[in-house]
Design goal:
The complex is a heterotrimer of chains A (about 425), B (about 300) and C (about 325). Chain A is an alpha/beta fold and about 425 residues long. Chain A has 14 helices and 14 strands. In chain A, a hairpin with a 5-residue loop joins strand 13 and strand 14. Chain A is globular. Chain C is globular, with a radius of gyration of 21 Å. The chains are: A alpha/beta (about 425), B mainly alpha (about 300), C mainly alpha (about 325). Chains A and B meet through helix 1, helix 3 and helix 4 of A and helix 1, helix 2 and helix 8 of B.
């Protein structure tokens, strides 16, 4: 018996050893994955469920736009197929999902995926395999800064974002405070992760020598319960701040605004980061007691509510009505109530279709990246009038313009642009 | 000796299939097979503790987190060879397991379940707190990343080594002591088993297994360690796998590992259970049904079938 | 004579140790109360945090009480208790979406919770209850995962919004803002706890349930339907859990499938702090944990919100190592 066991063990090791050696014959891809005569298959990961699922209208709008393009004959006669997977904003889900998209579904590129941590969890993998990871729905500075500089050990030329970067946005807030509220005492609530810290760093840079005017900076975690966030807001109020800056994703921002409304005799200038300055989210906050009048933010998209007469918004309304993935009319109400994520999705999809057109009749991953690195969109119909989506060798952030918006009209009100288009860029 | 033949031949078949797999399946499917190997190691370790020593743990995801972060951080900061980081994960988790095992000396049953559950939800918070060293929610990216074949080979070589190790441990003096602790602590003490030593040792060994699994888990995730990869559901998944496999037996582990390792990925294209929640429904329902109808899991089913065949 | 004195001395000594332990607990609680009072009088911020902590603690206590009821009835820790509470909160939300008023939905939800709890005991707990602790724990863990999946399946994972039944108003006492919500939360939780206590204390059903839990064999001899009593115990626990869920929801503003996951850990700590067998202990433990956590997060910047769960873990571990029976529990006798 013992002999038997030993023999068996030896055999097992031998077999496994063979497998290890023989493995070097890995399959290599030829041609361009995801591109056939009839279609281009792209993929993306989005939080359809979980704490960030308020963003799920973004992929819906993108798919609506692709359906619209396909109905008009596609790009170079190819239809765009957008395969999305739910990752619940959880990198543990993003990694296998992206693996599946790349290795099983053989997508041409990862387009528009949402979230900083999900993006970071897969950019090493995608860059190593030379798979474009582009137009990411997150404004962290990584997506533009790491094209030529090493980040986490290597450059990331296959990765790019789309929207204005968070530090740039925060710098504009700093400028505004210094201009309009001299000697302000600033209280900051920020999400304790790369996202919130990116913003906070930008604010500090923008304040420069005035950064000691930040009298209180409180961090919270995305997983925190409402009362914990409320406690932080109470702390900021108690610090005597007369400017309240919120660097939070929608859930935290809504809680913070509602809490602010509950604290008597505290009426600071409130600044809410662009990411959460969606009319739909703001109204949820108002429902829970927030006083929205005067809340300041920034924007880079046209508004479906206050700018409904722009040709771009009329087109947007038509596309969302006719091509929404849930069936005709399924997103109309969301659009009419001012969910800016729908407009965001359309703008990004427009950029992708534009880049795909410029990537040539037989697009490759390389030619797509080349097109994306040389964007010049003066005519993207969904961005704020006068703004340009542009990239070059030096300019790695496609959208670098913002306009201030201010809320008026109470709970049923809306954001209205104030001032002219500003540069948030590098 | 005759009794061992079916078991040995089953093992040989499994080993042979595993060796051939890289040549016949796609690179993507190989990554799924690697996932099964990773869960195999984790469930094997949990089984040594829960199945053989009778100490429940709902917190083995915490040890996987420690193992995974060990690999990611060592590779990031010191470019340590990945195999070496796996050994380090084994050693560190062994020590941490011993330490966690110490309070377990005074706790048993439900209390141990409570403590390990709290451990599972607490450990993923630590990288968020100590974000300069452990990367915060931005995660830690290892210096070197490896392909599916590398992970597959490493996972199954480790599985084989650790399986043989577990088998040797459990059939020897140590295994007898473990089982004595499980069956009756007081009786075990009365018959001269040093309770503190064996309980903590079982915790240490089991945690070390989970550490290796965690290390491979991170490598399979392109070398990226992030807190939410190790949320409480990972711990629950291990327990589900162990229950489906059958506690107190080594023969069902492959089935348990395949169940929890494959279902999430395989099911994404299946309509109803395809989504994440559908997977949870299947996991939850399966574990309850197994506990009600098949208390000894897949291993128990095998035993029953064998008896049927003999009768 | 001397034997007699020593016996009396022994009795006294034993009486004294019991008294001393009880006295220590009472003293500790008194000291804590005095500390909070002084703090509240001296600092508005402290008072503000305390008010908030008490309201949160009431929710933790309510869920902890549910855990204790289940533990007393069936010697099982129900790991799915929090998820069941989350499920019933979704049911309430759905009822309100269908036009029911808040309190009508509240009442219907509690009834559904009771039926659900009872049914679960009969169908999945009873068959494994006598097998082993491990088996029962695994079954409730399975239930945890199952309920989570079911809720995501039916209602989706995105946020739902429920209007607060107590409005958004607040009143101010000496500079401290006390929102109606917090007062309402504490009142509802207290009312439900008192009702459950009265049920156990003054009704025949309650007596039967206590008997079934403590001496099942003897109870069944005198004609108590032990099976049913245990099932009803689970039903009541589910009701208390539902109250905890409904009271937790407005303080979170959102309803999401992860509503109760952190709360469950705090409830574990609360239940163990109070002694797993003591209903009063669970409630006091809940408030203690709620206030402590809020004050610590408010005053110790090093312990940020990331360390709350690890902190609860440390509390849990410390109590179990120093005084496993908790503040109010009896020492457990281990059966061989």
């Amino acid at each position: 018996m013992p002999v038997n066991r030993k023999k068996f063990a030896a055999l097992l090791f031998a077999l496994l050893g063979t497998a290890a050696v023989a493995g070097s014959a890995a399959a290599s891809h030829t041609g361009t994955p995801g591109v056939s005569k009839q279609k281009v298959v792209i993929g993306g990961t989005f939080p359809y469920t979980g704490p960030a699922s308020l963003y799920k209208t973004i992929p819906a709008a993108e798919q609506a736009y692709y359906a619209y393009v396909n109905a008009k004959g596609g790009v170079h006669h190819r239809k765009i197929v957008d395969k999305t997977i739910d990752d619940s904003y959880n990198p543990a889900e993003t990694v296998p999902a992206v693996k599946q998209l790349v290795e099983k579904d053989h997508v041409f590129a990862i387009v528009g995926s949402l979230g900083t941590a999900p993006g970071l969890s897969t950019w090493g993998y995608l860059n190593k395999r030379h798979v474009p990871q582009v137009l990411l729905a997150t404004g962290d500075a990584y997506w533009g800064n790491c094209v030529h500089h090493k980040c986490q050990g290597s450059t990331k030329p296959w990765t790019m974002g789309w929207q204005p970067d968070y530090p740039g946005e925060a710098k504009l807030y700093a400028k505004y405070i210094l201009q309009h509220k001299a000697g302000a005492k600033i209280g900051v609530l920020y999400q304790n992760d790369a996202y919130g810290k990116n913003y906070l760093a930008g604010l500090k840079t923008g304040l420069g020598s005035h950064k000691d005017q930040i009298v209180d900076a409180q961090s919270y975690s995305v997983t925190d319960a409402g009362p914990v966030i409320s406690a932080h807001v109470g702390h900021i109020a108690a610090s005597g701040a007369n400017v309240f800056v919120i660097f939070a994703t929608p859930g935290g921002a809504i809680t913070a605004l509602a809490t602010e409304g509950h604290i008597p005799n505290w009426h600071p200038l409130t600044i809410n980061n662009n990411v959460s300055a969606n009319r739909v989210f703001m109204q949820l906050a108002a429902k829970n007691g927030a006083d929205l009048n005067g809340v300041l933010s920034t924007n880079y998209l046209s508004s479906a509510t206050t700018q409904a007469n722009l040709p771009g918004m009329k087109l947007a309304k038509k596309i969302i009505h006719k091509y929404a993935p849930g069936g005709v009319g399924s997103l109309d109400e969301q659009f009419a109530s001012g969910d800016s994520n729908l407009v965001y999705g359309l703008s990004v999809a427009w950029t992708f279709a534009d880049a795909l057109k410029h990537a040539g009749k037989n697009p490759t991953r390389k030619s797509l990246m080349h097109a994306l690195r040389n964007l010049n969109e003066k005519n993207n119909p969904f961005v704020y009038p006068g703004m340009v989506v542009r990239t070059s060798k030096k300019r790695t952030f496609p959208m670098q313009q913002l306009v201030f918006i201010k809320w008026s009209g109470g709970a049923a009100g809306d954001f209205h642009p104030t001032g002219k288009v500003l540069n948030s860029g590098h | 000796m005759r009794r061992q033949i079916p078991a040995l031949s089953a093992l040989l078949v499994v080993a042979a299939v595993l060796c051939v797999l890289p040549f016949i399946v796609s690179d993507y499917n190989l990554s799924l097979a690697a996932q099964v190997g990773i869960f195999f190691i984790g469930i094997l370790g949990l089984n040594i503790l829960t199945g053989y020593t009778g100490q429940i743990s709902i917190g083995h995801g915490a040890f996987m987190a420690i193992g995974g972060y060990t690999t990611a951080v060592m590779s990031r900061d010191h470019h340590t060879n990945l195999v070496v980081t796996m050994l380090m994960a084994f050693a560190i988790c062994f020590v941490v397991g011993l330490i966690v095992g110490l309070p377990a000396l005074r706790l048993s049953g439900v209390y141990l379940a409570l403590v390990t559950f709290a451990l599972a939800v607490s450990v993923p918070q630590l990288p968020l707190q100590y974000s300069t060293f452990l990367g915060g929610s931005g995660g830690v990216q290892s210096h070197r990343t490896v392909g599916n074949l590398w992970v597959y080979t490493a996972a199954w070589v480790c599985s084989a080594v650790l399986f043989v190790l577990a088998w040797l441990i459990l059939r020897g003096r140590l295994g007898r002591a473990f089982r004595a602790v499980r069956d009756s602590e007081i009786a075990a003490v009365a018959s001269g088993v040093e309770l503190p030593i064996y309980k903590t040792l079982a915790f240490g060994i089991s945690a070390a297994y989970a550490g290796v699994a965690g290390s491979l888990f991170v490598l399979a995730a392109n070398g990226f360690a992030q807190p939410s990869e190790f949320d409480v559901f990972l711990s629950l998944q291990l327990l589900v796998g162990a229950a489906v496999a059958g506690l107190g037996s080594l023969w069902g582990i492959l089935a348990g590992a395949a169940f929890v390792g494959l279902l999430p990925q395989v099911s994404t294209s299946v309509p109803v259970i395809g989504a994440q929640h559908g997977r949870d429904v299947v996991f939850g329902a399966a574990v309850i049904l197994v506990m009600l109808l098949l208390p000894d899991g897949f291993a128990g089913l095998l035993t029953r079938l064998r008896r049927l065949a003999r009768a | 004579m001397s034997a007699q004195t020593s016996a009396i001395a022994g009795l006294r000594a034993r009486g004294w140790t019991i008294d001393s332990s009880a006295a220590t607990v009472v003293l500790l609680l008194l000291a804590a109360a005095v500390f909070l009072l002084i703090g509240c009088l001296r600092s508005t911020n402290f008072a503000q945090l305390t008010v908030q902590g008490v309201a949160l603690g009431a929710v933790y206590g309510s869920l902890a009480l549910a855990l204790v009821l289940v533990y007393r009835a069936t010697h099982v820790i129900n790991f799915a208790q929090g998820e069941l509470a989350m499920l019933t909160t979704y049911i309430a939300w759905d009822l309100m979406e269908h036009g029911l008023s808040y309190w009508a939905a509240f009442a219907v939800t509690l009834a559904i919770a009771f039926a659900l709890g009872t049914a679960l005991e009969v169908t999945i707990i009873r068959p494994v209850q006598h097998r082993s602790v491990i088996a029962t724990v695994i079954v409730t863990v399975g239930l945890f995962v199952l309920v989570d999946g079911v809720v995501n399946w039916i209602w989706g994972g995105d946020y739902k919004f429920m209007q607060s039944p107590f409005g958004n108003g607040s009143f101010t006492v000496g500079g401290v803002v006390i929102s109606h919500l917090y007062v309402g939360m504490v009142a509802v939780v207290l009312a439900s706890v008192v009702l459950v206590w009265a049920l156990f204390r003054f009704t025949k059903l309650g007596l039967g349930m206590r008997a079934a839990a403590l001496r099942p064999a003897a109870a069944s001899l005198v004609g108590v339907r032990v099976d049913w009593m245990l099932a009803i115990g689970w039903g009541l626990a589910a009701v208390l859990g539902a109250v905890a869920g409904l009271m937790a929801e407005p303080s979170q503003i959102f309803l999401s499938p992860t509503l109760m996951q952190p709360i469950l850990v705090y409830a574990f700590a609360a239940a163990v702090l109070g002694g797993l067998e003591s209903p009063a202990g669970a409630v006091i433990g809940g408030v203690a944990i709620g206030v402590t956590l809020t004050l610590i997060v408010g005053y110790v910047p090093e312990i940020s919100s990331e360390l709350q769960l690890p902190f609860a873990f440390a509390v849990l571990l410390l109590i179990l190592l120093i005084k496993p029976s908790g503040l109010f529990g009896r020492r457990e006798v281990r059966r061989v």
